[in-house]
Amino acid sequence: MSIGDACKPLKDEYDACFNTWFSEQFLKGRTNDSMCEPLFRVYQDCVKKVMKEQNIEIQEVEKDLLGTNSERKVPPKKS
Q1: pTM for the structure as a whole
Q2: How far is residue 76's CA from residue 79's CA, in Å, rounded to a whole number?
């Protein structure tokens, strides 16, 4: 899943690169993941642009809410 339809082809391209790197490099002990970095950066820039257009603040997305009073709780079941 990707935010914004405009970013989907970029995500697909990055995912394909990552899957190739994972199966052909990482699983063989080569952990240098720089081969997909340029694709990731382009995809990341696209996501940031769409977030800005939709007034989504990156700080809001990165907040650690689990275990805090700000965490949304499941409403209690009514008896």
Answers
A1: 0.69
A2: 9
For residue 15, report the phi and psi dihedrals to the nearest 5 degrees.
-60, -40
pLDDT in tens, the chain (79 residues): 567 788 999 999 999 999 999 999 999 999 998 999 999 999 999 998 998 898 888 776 677 777 887 777 777 787 6
In one-letter notation, the amino acid at residue 76 is: P
Give residue 5's identity as a one-letter amino acid code: D
The tokens describing 72, both together, are: 């949304």
